[in-house]
Amino acid sequence: MKLLSLLIIGAALCFGAVDINKADKKELMAINGVGEAKADAILEYRKKNNCFKNIQELKEVKGFGDKFLEKNRAGIMAGECKKK
Question: Cα(54)–Cα(56) distance, rounded to whole angstroms?
């Protein structure tokens, strides 16, 4: 079952970017360089701030910086955001 989940996530990554505003923990962990702790940090940021208005805002989350964005720019996106 775990392998099937990873295959589905991997296939999704091949066909499009991961939306950091909608992805669940497993989908976030499929991003290169994102493990459990970083995925949790993204989810916590979303919980506190509603969403990311752009991928640059990801740098406000501990563990994410310019290097991460350079390596993953094509594989991540920040979908529609209705910030309060």
Answer: 5
Q: Residue 72 corresponds to which amino acid?
A: N
**What is the distance between the alpha carbons of residues 1 and 4, in angstroms, rounded to a whole number?**
5
The residue among 47, 48, 46 whose CA lies nearest residue 79 is: 46
What's the start-to-end Cα distance of the chain, in Å?
A: 38
pLDDT in tens, 11-48: 444 558 999 999 999 999 999 999 999 999 999 999 99
Rounded to an integer, what distance in angstroms lies between the CA atom of residue 45 and that of residue 21? 10
**What is this structure's pTM?**
0.79
- All structural domains of the chain: 2-77 (1.10.150.280)
What are the DSSP calls for 42-67, one per residue? HHHHHHHHS--SSGGGGGGSTT--HH
